[in-house]
Amino acid sequence: MGCAKSKLPDPEFDAVPPQGDGGQGGGDRQQRTQSHDKRMSAVLRSKRQGGGRANIMGEKMDMNETFVAKKVYKSAEVEQMITKVLSNTFPFSSLEPQLLQVVVDAMENKQVMASEQVITQGEQGDFFYLVESGSFTVVVNNMEVGTVSQGGTFGELALMHGAPRAATIKCQSSSASLWALDRNTFRRSLASTTHSEIQGTTQVLQRVPQFSQLTDTQLSKMASAVEPVAFNAGDLIIEKGTAGSVFYIVKKGTVICKDIGTENRPLEDVTLGEGGFFGERALLLNEPRAANVYAQTAVQCLIMDRQSFNDILGPLKELIDANMSLNVLASVPLLKGLTTSERNELVTKMGLRSYRDGEYIIKQHDKGNDFFIVKDGTVLVTQSVDANSEPRKIAELGNCDYFGEMALLQDDPRQANVVAAGGGCEVFTLSRDDFTRLLGPLQNILERESKRRSSDNSHLSSRPSMSELKPLENIELKDLNQLAVLVTGTFGKVKLVQHKQTKQTYALKIMKKGHIIAYKQQTNVISEKNVMVQAQHPFILALVATMKDSHSLYMLIELCLGGELFNYLHCHPTRDVEYIPNNHARFYSACVLDAFEYLHAKLIVYRDLKPENLLIDSDGYIKVVDFGFAKVVEDRTYTLCGTPEYLAPELVLGKGHAKGVDYWALGVLIYEMLVGYSPFAGEEAPDQMVICRNILGGKYETPRQMNSVPAKDLVKKLLTKDANKRLGCMKAAAKEIKNHAWYAKFEWDKLLERQVQSPWKPPIKSATDTSHFDPYEEDEDEFSEPYHDDGSGWDDAF
Predict the structure, then answer these.
(1) Are 21 and 37 in contact (CB under 8 A)?
(2) The pTM is what?
(3) Nearest 5°: phi and psi at 511?
């Protein structure tokens, strides 16, 4: 079960399927045959979906495609009027001035005649409008509910995604003038402008010598975290001799660096223009400034201080050392089978040792326990034929060379001497004991890699960087008995099935190819399947096998019979309230956090967290399901997707996002578990526009049931609007969250071993007990979309 839900159409959002996702974790509740004790669940979910619990997905954006934003002429007076209105209108009020100007430039004029209908209730919309002159009537369900006149706006939600219009807007004056902006222009303008600015800043950072050993991802993260600052002509920006902690990039204007050098050896003044940088040593060293720097003209700079850099990436010196160690570990043949996360773990345990010229690092015939990487200096490798002969030189090793790797595998005698030379050296060291404590014996890893290489996984993924692909079981559709429907949705249904020979029960997700094609979901379905193959974790639902026939795709998935966390929260028979105690919320969120840490180490961003997508297994543990929105993200991505109540601000605006959206959603989940409803929707579940406005505003209440001070603090730090400052997005990643006071004394290792007592163990009578799911009626007609094979082979991966 836990079939990942199929989502709304992509990349074109104009054809909208019925709400509901076709996964075990949340489907079309209106189609269910409801028993009395489940009716509250259905009613509540219906209410919550109407207010935004249904998923949304916008158009995919390819940042490799050139997009040039429109620039429509407007008089200065009109431009000023539009800017003023948008500055106080959702979602524009959250934009930086340069992005707001891009939007203002792109708006086009539309003249409207009397009685003309600009938008129609129920139709898909993709335009936002601002009224320059005239007035308009607002009609909802054939009833006039208001008017919009000069300076008013309507259609804001269309800028987010293609939601059906909530009202009809009709011109009631003799004529009117509107300024219009379409969704594609809005979202692509913001994404393209943001992407270009980050790229430009990254290119400047690549020229800074001190950053030469940082990765592209680290530089991009740094580029996204710089902050703007302005100076007037003549302003002193840096004073010589003062303590420095800020690095500057000139974005516009020119600066002049004066009084460089010493009194006895003065140097010429240096002028820096756009793309120039200064003060870079302040991020590495705490030393006095070496010059006076003045703004020669009005200047706009991008700045980053040392503390911010350290918070986001860690101290620069340590970062450079870690990068070097990671590169070396990746090149050691013996360690090829390690995953990226495993290499990162090892780097944290590496120590630094110094050796004097001529000092032995390794002696021939001694037992070995340590592996070494040369950080700085030179070492000589020598070998003696016998005890009476002089050692002869075999090799000379320098920076980034390594030796002693066999000691990680066994404690055989060393085969050579290694001696510090050339004035001494510094080396990174890793002991076999630390390696084993972190990852287990190296022999096990070698065997794991050998098995992986011997398995034919070429059909599972086109990304060789994703290691540990799990071979799927050889189970065919004819081997399964279909017993009951668990969930129905847009693209198919999920059934409880039993293997005829072994009697093992599973969930079978059935997706109709016709529906997948009609809603352009081919890429998402294949991506979902590939992610599930790569995700092997105790708190992630396992994919067992895939199958297909002429009309459907099938995913055979691990079965969880305890139901959704949503039902446990909002309609559990033993509670009169819809919130749970701190220790319950702590346990469930810990399962999710551990799964996220695992996914993020594989560069997978989940993007669809909500209680409906968390199943409870027979032991009461959480299983994350529904990977329809999951994506490998090495830097950032720009597609709008998810559930409105759980969207991070950067997702709402489409300015680019990464793993930080998952940690924002974790904050929303913790809040909902402790309070009974999500922070930006509240108890009344308002419409999507109100939810998005609340998210961008960043304001929420903490009612009395949220009575834990550490819980309030954790939620606050997870719901931080600036993703660069959000807990989990900085140098320690998920460990920052795990180390928070709310998780004090929580036994993470025992959780992973499933040795922590779960808050609730669902009563399950048998392997076919579906009592924790609402019953469904069989209805084959709802999946009648015809399918005609186009010969593209899009489903070959199944």
Answers:
(1) no
(2) 0.83
(3) -120, 125
